[in-house]
Design a protein that fits this description.
- The protein has 169 residues and is mainly beta.
- It has a 5-stranded antiparallel sheet, with no helix packed on it.
- The N terminus is likely disordered.
Amino acid sequence: MIAALLTAAALQGTTAKASVAQQVGAVSIAAADSTSREASAGEGITTAFVASNHSNAPVAGVVSVTLPSGWRLLSRHGELRIAPQGRAVLVVSVAVPRAAAAGQYALVVRFSGADGKNPDATLAIRVRARREVEVALLEAPGFVPAGERYTATYVVSNRGNASQRVRMR
């Protein structure tokens, strides 16, 4: 049975560094297709990692990843066993929260083997900026004679996930 327990760390506001592969002891782990991905807030991401056993003996361990704050793991995982000179594919699915700010995040997958060696691989995830501003009329006079000045009150809300500059005249 191939499975893994996942965890990842947020690097929002910094550059998420992607590792191609890391071998520690008999096991290496790497992102299967790419070391970086883009996603929109509120969307799901599914990606694969490959764990390889470079020894002539079977290995067993646990795969772990810590998700950025507020992110949710959608796939189920548990213990991982890899045959001698074998490989195991780990499919990892996560949900990016709708409220996730635009920026860089990292998903770090680590194999913790019985030998105490812990190789890992990092997938950099860039959450795209979503620009959405809502302007709602709060208060205004019901009637204004032509040519007269009046005052109206509006509520301006940022419904996106990135800072917005708004100028009203």
